[in-house]
Amino acid sequence: MQRAMLKRDAAYDGVFFVAVRTTSIFCRPACPAKKPRPQNVEYFASARDALFAGYRPCKRCRPLDTNGRPPAWVRSLLDAVEANPSARLRDADLRAMSIEPARARRYFRSHLGMTFQAFHRARRMGLAMAKIREGRDLTDVALGHGYESASGFRDAFAKTFGKSPGRSRNAAMIRVKWIESPVGPLILGATDKAVCLLEFTDRRALQTQVEALRKRFDCPIVPGTNKCIAQATDELAQYFAGELRRFRVPLTYPGTAFQVSVWKRLLHIPYGRTISYEQLATKIGRDGAQRAVGTANGKNRIAIIIPCHRVVNKSGQLGGYGGGLWRKKFLLDLEKGQLGLT
Question: What secondary structure does DSSP assign to 83-151, as a single string?
Answer without folding.
Answer: H-TTS---HHHHHHTT--HHHHHHHHHHHHSS-HHHHHHHHHHHHHHHHHHTT--HHHHHHHTT-SSHH
